[in-house]
Amino acid sequence: MSRVRDRNNSAWLLPTDGTRTNHRQRREMRRYAESDEVDVVVVGCGAGGATVIQRLARAGFSVVGFDAGPFWDPDTDWVSDEAGSHDLFWTDPRVISGTDPVPLGANNSGRGVGGSMVHFAGYAPRFHPSDFQTATLDGVGADWPINYEDLEPYYQDMEEELPVAGEHWTWGKPHSYPHRPHPVGGNGEVFQRGAEAMGLTAKVGPVATTNGRFGNRPHCIYRGFCLQGCKVNAKASPLITHIPDALAHGAEIRPDSMVSRIAVDDRTGKATGVHYISDGVEHFQRAGTVVVAGYSIETPRLLLNSRSALFPDGLCNNFDQVGRYLMVQGAAQTSGRFESEIRKYKAPPPEVSCEDFYETDPSKPYKRGFSLQTVAPLPVTWSEHLTAQGHWGADLRRRMTDYVHWASFGTLCELLPQADNRVTLDPQTDQHGLPVANFSYSMCDNDRQLLDAAQTTMEEMLRAAGAAETITIKRFAHLVGGARMADDERHGVVDADCRSFAVPNLYITDGSVLPTQGSANPALTIMAVAARAAEGMIKSAQAQSAQT
Amino acid sequence: MTKSPIPYPRFPGFDVMEQAKHWDQVTRELVESRLQPPDGDSFFSLSERAVAATLCDQLTGQHEDPRIPVVQMIETRLAANRTDGWHHADLPPDRRTWQQSLRNLDADAHEAHGTDFPTCSLDQQAQVLTSIQKTSGLWHGLRADEVWNLWMRYVCAAFYSHPWAWNEIGFPGPAYPRGYKNIGMNRRESFEVGQEHPEQGPVPHQ
Predict the structure, then answer these.
(1) How far is A30 from A63, CA to CA, in rounded Å?
(2) How far off is chain B from A157, nearest CA to CA, in Å?
(3) Where are the beta strands (DSSP E) in A156-270?
(4) Paired residues of A277 in beta bridges
(5) Considering the domain boundaries, does residue A33 fall inside one?
(6) d(CA A332, CA A329)
(7) Which pLDDT score, from 0 to 100, does residue B4 have?
(8) Minimal CA separation from B48 to chain A, in Å
(9) Residue at A356 is within a domain
(10) How many CB pairs under 8 A join A and B?
């Protein structure tokens, strides 16, 4: 029995008969009564929530995890098709504003058990040590109340549990991955060729996709539909990496249940449970501790919608910090035309990365940096690349016939956290009558300079690899921040252990707590932060019970 | 009806539906349903539908039957209010923006050419659209670029989810449970078809 299996048996609890869901486990799942005061309720079953549910259930806590969306079955709910994957995304109404409004939905917002990792590409890099102290090192962004070394053991644990495949990583703090790098397709070959011609380093990975069997999860089959939910069970999402083990340890998952408000006792100032809506009926679940993990839009929205006598401006919002410092990464994608056939739809979109430009370069006018990765838009998404150039009608159709000849790279630029990039409540309401989120986003000068530098580098790489022509689509990716961790309540919403400053039995364990974002895809860091927070909760409960 | 009329034939003989037997059942049924006459709920009024249909024909360059039923696919989406999960603060929600923009489009046709948008000549229709696309700032009180983007998103999501469009661009569609064996530049599966004159590209390079 391997060490990872001792810690998290999820991959061994999945079926071995070619189907993807352990239905018996779900049928026999423990169910708590609403009148029971469970130890913990967790709002959201994505990267942050599911990790906490699994850790706490294993430690003997009674846990109920809520998700607004379904408890997915990859066999029957997911398709190998772009348009048919619409329900994987959070498509309830939301408003976007600011000078650089950020599209949500398919771009960055999941729904259902597994969260956004169900449709993330699969890149699972670590942050660099510098990401935890950008204010001290570069005079921009913020310092975290924890540092890289605090998270490092949790990074290692998560890389084994997902598991992550890739070459030995020489950027940031050097480390290796548990699975070997995957073979690369045409798109990855172009990336490697371009990097080599420019004297840059390219590394295969890191992707949270099995390369070889892992427990009962099979090898990746390179079908290219990673962003549509992995029907193979090869790509990691908490639906298969953490929920099965949580169920085996007595956790309950309550899907299709939209938490509308966190209840707080005005006398004690403590959270008492959550109001939620299921099948149009409002319910209340009592709990000793509430953990919020709804990601950077829904977590602030839930807090702002949870007003009470004690918290007239929204829960934890005494110092007007909720919803602020929300970040997205500048994620322009540049494509190049080759006479050779690339057929980028073959092989997973995430193949090869370069982090040579991740850190601040003193010779440049801007601070912080960007990473470069392969991306592989399927036809509907590829059409957006062409419509972004202004093509339509017969012209668009003709250009689309050239699909198989184009390779595509993407950048992740570290756009800086700014107080006014935030979620507020909009007068518009959703189907439950709850005010929806308005996400306002505007870039600063440093952001624009980074984006220009990254685009230029991608164009140069593609030309160095032999591209005759390049096109770029400007876009954003990922979400973090909105309820950040800080040293005190005047600068953030939660402390270093993800406990809210305002309510002692309320935690936030999703991407909202990140004070900076680096140029790394955030999933692995969100899980590592959540695993660390869960360990803190377990230790503090043990200390408490030792006292009594 | 599995063969599509392709005005831009670069992958001769390629028909993704020949591979449908290799797809998982849920995906196969979904893709096959797109080849049946659309049976979704209606959303547009008669006059809105006529303008929307003409708009979709123009934006996809489909001017004769058989067509990929783009306008019906959009109408089904709007009837179910299946949005992308966001709208700009300065645009109404998608349904209202669609209705409003179709009225505005028809008004532009009347002003420029003295007749309804659908009864304009193809060139006149294209002129009206080109002028909207080139508008910076507001168009009938709405941001022109945001309206154009909304149209293109709905139109392309419908058009490029149809197997005829995949035939046209050489994309073999769903790939589960089979996956791919031959990944890498210039490597094909047995069911992938090569292109005529790959060196030329779809349009002459500048």
Answers:
(1) 10
(2) 30
(3) 203-204, 252-254, 258-264
(4) A258, A282
(5) no
(6) 9
(7) 52
(8) 20
(9) yes
(10) 215
